[in-house]
Design brief:
The protein is an alpha/beta fold. It has 16 helices and 19 strands. Helix 2 crosses helix 16 and helix 13 crosses helix 14. Bound molecules: zinc ion. Zinc ion binds next to strand 6.
């Protein structure tokens, strides 16, 4: 008898690491118990193994969204360009009243559905649950398991208040407003989230083969040395990857210069001295790294996750992709928050990855489409510690596969499957998504849940969210004069590097 995770996928153009990525050869893929067991021509299978006809389909490994937050999937499209520090006040959970169990379930499923529909088979969810309610973490995990996407879940935590991590805020804002300036992962004095996470999830082990765990120290400037030490110890004990934010905006680089003179004004040096750098650490953004810091990441095997969509929308800047590549840093790719990236779409992220690199250098460099695709697949697998079984189509690996329509105008004529995947496809061609041998999306429709009932569930929670967002937006609008003053002062400072393009012929402010 075949298991329900056995399949024969026939006649697709299969993108493998050692094959021609431009005109990939037509091959069959045999899947048994969720894993790829054979790859070749004219494969057969037992009569009860379902066959998927992949004629006119490009078969690629599922994308791995290596930096994502499920907590604001209801906030896509709520704003235009917004500087990072202002965006935090509008989007991050500490600004909101406690959410309902129903909303958390619905928003997690909505995000997962969008990821799946655009060809992602794994998400790294660095979720902020504030105020922390243990039940809410259960709901997040349950949602991923139910819809059938792989998820590497990390609670986002910190123990230093947001206002103390942003340059000039304490001096610019009147004292009576300080209480309303919560940002990323405000410390919750009443509950030790990390201890709960360890006892409930890490000690118990995962009940689903789709769910994995990671540690999520929000950013080094939001974590005390003691909390970083705790993170290092937990990562070692449980073999967990770590995800953190670094130097997303100029304000974060400036904060490092001002607050860490003992580490040469460098958060990377601080983390190195604290023992956090290394192959298990993934630093999201990394826009404002100095050349010396990039060298240190390369030497220690520390990884970076590039988030092109949010870096541009939040006016953070262009990350030094070529320098990171030259230093041998493994790159993953993420779509970050829905409130600032607007889309969980790896095609958009891959394209911007290449285009941002192109305009960063006058001289030509290595082909970036293969680099972007690698970051979206193998780089993500490396980030979550799954080099050996995810991120590539090869024998023995998990059957996390995406079938893309080669009859879509994006691929006609087929000049280069890889380049058209990166530069032309927008997601429209994603037809079938398979996670661990299980068909989750078929002909663009969700197979694991009743999609209409799921949409009803999501629609029910939207009015409450939109009402709360309107209140928060009105509150932040009143803070604009102070926020703009802080941005002006940050942008006027010299941090030794430049990652923002300024049209110098146009008057500033
Ligand atoms: Zn993030």
């Amino acid at each position: 008898m075949s298991s329900d995770r056995s399949l024969l996928i026939k006649g697709g153009r299969v993108v493998t690491s050692d094959g021609d990525p431009h005109i990939p050869p037509i091959q069959d893929i045999l899947v048994a118990n969720g894993k790829i067991v054979e790859l070749g021509e004219n494969l057969g299978a037992e009569a009860d193994v379902p066959v998927i006809d992949a004629t006119d389909r490009l078969v690629i490994p599922g994308f791995i969204n290596a930096h994502y937050h499920s907590h604001d999937t209801l906030a896509k499209g709520v704003m235009e360009e917004t500087p990072l520090e202002t965006w935090r006040l509008l989007a991050l959970p500490p600004a909101y009243p406690k959410r309902s169990r129903e909303e958390i379930k619905a928003r997690t499923l909505l995000g997962a559905l969008e990821c799946l529909r655009s060809g992602m088979t794994t998400v790294q969810d660095m979720v902020t649950l504030y105020p922390f309610d243990p039940e809410h973490l259960d709901v997040v995990v349950e949602a991923y398991d139910e819809i059938g996407i792989r998820a590497v879940v990390a609670l986002q935590y910190g123990d230093i208040k947001g206002i103390d991590t942003i340059p000039f805020w304490r001096e610019i804002f009147p004292t009576e407003l300080h209480g309303s300036l919560s940002t990323a992962a405000e410390p919750d004095p009443g509950f030790d989230q990390l201890a709960y996470f360890v006892d409930t999830y890490l000690e118990a082990g995962s009940s689903s083969d789709l769910i994995g765990w990671a540690l999520g120290p929000s950013a080094p400037e939001r974590c005390s040395p003691a909390l970083i030490q705790r993170t290092v110890a937990l990562s070692q004990k449980y073999g967990l990857p770590i995800f953190s934010h670094i130097y997303e905006s100029k304000g974060m680089a400036l904060q490092a210069r001002r607050e860490y003179p003992e580490h040469g004004g460098s958060l990377i040096r601080r983390l190195h001295e604290e023992g956090l750098l290394g192959p298990r650490l993934n630093l999201a953004h990394s826009v404002w790294l100095t050349p010396e810091e990039i060298g240190l990441l390369g030497e220690t095997g520390t990884n970076v996750v590039i988030n092109p969509l949010s870096n541009m929308k939040l006016k953070s800047g262009i990350p030094p992709i070529r320098a990171l590549q030259d230093a041998g840093v493994s790159l993953g790719l993420g779509c970050d928050n829905c409130s600032c990236s607007d889309a969980q779409n790896m095609f958009q992220a891959m394209k911007l990855f290449c285009l941002m690199t192109a305009i960063s250098h006058i001289d030509g460099g290595p082909a970036q489409a293969p680099q972007a695709f690698k970051a979206a697949t193998q780089g993500g697998a490396h980030a979550i510690g799954r080099d050996n079984d995810l991120g590539q189509i090869a024998m023995g690996r998990e059957a996390d596969l995406v079938l893309i329509d080669l009859t879509d105008p994006s691929f006609i004529p087929l000049n280069s499957a890889l380049r058209q995947l990166v530069y032309t496809e927008g997601g429209r061609g994603v037809k079938t998504v398979i996670v661990g041998g299980r068909v989750v999306i078929q002909d663009g429709r969700l197979k694991t849940m009743n999609e209409a009932a799921l949409l009803d569930q999501i629609m029910d929670v939207i009015p409450r969210f939109q009402k709360d967002y309107a209140v928060i937006k009105a509150r932040v609008d009143k803070l604009q004069p102070y926020l703009q003053e802080a941005h002006r002062r940050i942008w006027a400072e010299d941090v030794g590097i430049e990652r923002l393009f300024h049209d110098t012929s146009y008057p500033r402010f």
